[in-house]
Amino acid sequence: MAGSGFSRRDVLAGIAAGTAAGIFGSSSSARAAVAEMVWATWDSNGHPEYVAAFEAQTGVKVKLSYLSSEDAQFAALKTGTASDWDMINPSLNGSWRYIKSGLLEQLDMSKIPNAAKMYDVFKTTPKVLDASGKQFAVPYLWGLNPIVYRKDKFESEPDYTTLFNAKYKGQLAMRDYALESIAIAGLVAGVPRDKVFVMETKELAEAKKLLIAQKPLLRTYWQTIGDLTNLFATGEVSCAFSWRVPFDVLKDKLPMGMAKPKAGIMGWCDCFAMPATLSAEKSEIGYKFINYLLGPEYATQVAKIGNYATTSPIIRDTLSKEEQEAIFVDDMDVMKSFMWPVAPENYSEWLKIWNEVKAS
Amino acid sequence: MAPVFHRGQLAIPVTCILMLGCIFPLALLAVFSVFEVDLDAFTLVPAFSGQNWVQMFTNPVFAFLIGKAVVSGAGTAVLAAIIGYPIAVSMTRLPVLWKGVGSIVLLTPLYTGEIVRIYAWRVVLGSEGLINATLKWLGAISEPLKFLLFSPFTTHLVLLYNNLPFMVLAIWISAELIDKRLIEAARDLGARPIDAFFKIILPLTTPGLAVGVFTVFALAAGDMMTPSLLGGTSGATPMAMIDNLFGTAFDWPLASALSLSLLVVLLVFATGFVGVLLRFDGARAVFRRGAR
Q1: Are B129 and A352 a contacting pair at CB < 8 A?
Q2: What is the tally of structural domains in chain B?
Q3: Domain-located, residue B149
Q4: Predicted pLDDT of residue A18
Q5: Which range has the worst mean pLDDT, A311-320, B116-125, B138-147, B271-280?
Q6: pLDDT tens digits for A105-149?
Q7: B183 belongs to a structural domain
Q8: Would you state the pLDDT for residue A28?
Q9: Range list of H helices, B145-200
Q10: What angle do CA B74, B161, B71 make, to 5 degrees?
Q11: Is position B46 within any domain?
């Protein structure tokens, strides 16, 4: 029987696996090729049309599972409640804790040919390596968190000091987030951008003093980007440390501007990674997928629809000047003033300071 | 043969749910609160350290946040009782059909969802919102009244609005249960309406009032969204800090200590308020009747 193809057991196993795949959707069949991969990512990174070309090329369906927060993603992996995720989305700044916790699969970069074409700043980042230099994640999408403002209410382009200027009392907003807000105060206090996330006690005290003085000038602290967009749209706020979303949403209705402060630009960058527990068969598809994320199809879609840039210049020269400007790749000097917000080890201290500011 | 259950046995499912959903997580929090975090391995280490509890008692920011929650909860509960009481008592005098309509009107806002309500309040109270625009149109103001939105006033107005139905419902049910013959007898014996109210209605509705106070206090003191999204720079809450500590900071031990401290303080105050209310004779009379 062994030489004649299928045994009865094989057939039964096949039927069972097929039934299971039908019932549970996300589970892969036991013997057949991988039919589906679950990608846990942000909704802005994973529109169905962004991955359609990959699905057509490989015949593997990418099921999108949208994240609510990075903390929730980490907690889900740490506690084992995310067993159906095949590909995940740690941030560049937060990758270290996934790596330290042993949650990620080590990557064989030779299986990702497009990785060689990445911008140097992303290709050489040590944030995705463990202490011995092994790589566990690949940066694929990045952007800036600018100051968004109303052009009709400011004569010149604002910078971080504008957010502390009494002249604009009642029109300003800061994010209700200890990490970025304290870092901005650190920059205003004169701490260099490569030191703000490792500030010493004295510098933290300076930053705290500035934030307490700033508090009466603020209309509010914003919670979510939808919240801030609403604040701009309703005229409550005219200048805020922001993400680019309010600019994109409101630019056709209001005179909106985006400023990239010279003191340092907060960058964000999302990485691709696979859970350490992933099967070898699925890993192979995972490699194909990250290669796709670094390739031209995904880059074109995400630049034109989402206004985001991938970590590779692969399509940069095919974009118009306006399209390049929209995703911040018109002037590559921007990469020299990047700051990557990293939660310091004493982040509980930062949180206490932030709450002291808010309680003052 | 039908199985015969003892009354006590019927409580077993509820006891199990309580053990699983309440006692067990609380015990876990107590255990975590004496742990330490190993940030190198990203794990919790059973260190049996009192460090987090020392911080709870020595760093004033924790006392401030918990105190703020208590004041917020108590203020809202008192205001809801003052405003809700007359509404609840008047509802008892409505014809049955109107009672139904009244309770629907009372509860409808709760069906809209918190986020929708929060953004609706922004539309009403904002600088370019309904109230400011109307006042400007009437010529009463030239600049918008900024305190209407993103201030402690906003937080408490909305907390009161959100929680008022819980107060009214509790008092209303209590007031409906009053034997109307008692009031008639009092009036026949020459009591003025105000005397009948203070000697019969108020004492006999204290259990409802106590339930309302307990509920509104807990809901208002524990709210995070309303202060965060409508309170402006005054919107700090212990809940938001717990959220941050459990999340980005990965400081579960400190978060556990803060959660337990908040819980204990809120329980002490809530029990205190309710204890005082239930000491009134009326409340005792209602409970004795119920027990019989």
Answers
A1: no
A2: 1
A3: yes
A4: 40
A5: B271-280
A6: 999 999 999 999 999 989 999 999 999 999 999 999 999 899 999
A7: yes
A8: 41
A9: 152-176, 180-188, 193-196
A10: 15
A11: no
Q: In CATH, what number is assigned to the domain containing residue B140? A: 1.10.3720.10
For B146, the closest of A100, A101, A170 (CB atoms) is A170
Residue B219: CB atoms within 10 Å: 17
pLDDT, tens digit, 9 for 90 and up, residues A8-48 = 444 344 444 444 443 344 444 434 489 999 999 998 899 99
Residue with tokens 């329980």: B267
Percent over 70 (pLDDT), chain B: 97
Q: Which residues pair with A144 in a beta bridge?
A: A267
Is residue A240 a contact partner of residue A222, using CB atoms and an 8 Å limit?
Answer: yes
Structural domain that includes position B182: 59-291
Complex-level ipTM:
0.78
Q: Which of B39, B128, B233, B251 to mutate to test the interface with A (most CBs of A within 10 A)?
A: B233
User: Mean of the pLDDT values across residues A254-279?
Assistant: 93
Q: Does A346 touch chain B (CB under 8 A)?
A: no
Residue-range domains of chain A with CATH: 33-140+268-328 (3.40.190.10), 147-259+340-359 (3.40.190.10)
DSSP one-letter code for B40: T
User: Is the residue at B208 inside a domain?
Assistant: yes
Tell me the β-bridge partners of A175: A222
CB of B69 closer than 8 Å to CB of B266:
yes
Q: Do B248 and A71 touch (CB under 8 A)?
A: yes
A129, A109 contact by CB (below 8 A): no
**Exposed/middle/buried for B160, CB within 10 Å: 0-12, 13-18, 19+?**
buried
The reply to whether residue A236 touches residue B61, judged by beta carbons under 8 angstroms, is no
Contact A347/B248, CB-based, under 8 Å?
yes
Provide the residue type at B224 as one letter.
Answer: M
Question: Under 8 Å CB-to-CB from A174, ≥6 apart: which residues?
Answer: A163, A181, A184, A214, A218, A221, A222, A240, A241
Q: What angle do CA A134, A136, A138 make, to 5 degrees?
A: 115
pLDDT tens figures, A61-71: 999 999 877 87
